[in-house]
Amino acid sequence: MTPVLRCLSNLLTEEAVEAGGGQVQLRDERVVASVFILLQFLLQKHPSLLPEGLWLLNNLTANSPSTCTSLLSLDLIKPLLQLLPVSNAVSVLVLTVLCNVAEKGPAYCQHLWPGPLLPSLLDTLAFSDTEVVDQSLELLQLLFLYRPEAAQAFLQQSGLQALKRHEEEAQLQDRGHALQQTALHR
User: Fold this and answer.
1) pTM of the model
2) What is the Cα–Cα distance from 117 to 120, expressed in whole angstroms?
């Protein structure tokens, strides 16, 4: 099943790029809805393949504002966040998809904040996996950039204490310090 998922991912992404002259133009919400049906199936029947399904969603959202819009209009952020505890690999991919959405700018971040995103990100800062934490820090940085009021909520919800847990980890020091400075100076 893994080769089929990878082929599907490559075909959808390749077709979308060709259709848009370099920009992914998949505007059909049915594609995003179908991917979520696939993710639900994988979670229930083949959880080890869930990262492959999320990789497909990552490919679709990477350069496509319209796919990100579909993700938001179908109200699929909360179901994505519910996948965070499944595994570290799944968490990284979920956070990457959310970063893809946040990178599209303020209008997209408006749909991410306020809502369940910040509490979920604070939970991921408790993970021991540095890749998960690093991706969480990236998403928080984007959120603070486009929704400065999220930085204040981060501080109010003990975000700095969550960051302190990773002060000794070399991979996370710079990003954690930058996020702390952003939060304090917003």
Assistant:
1) 0.86
2) 5
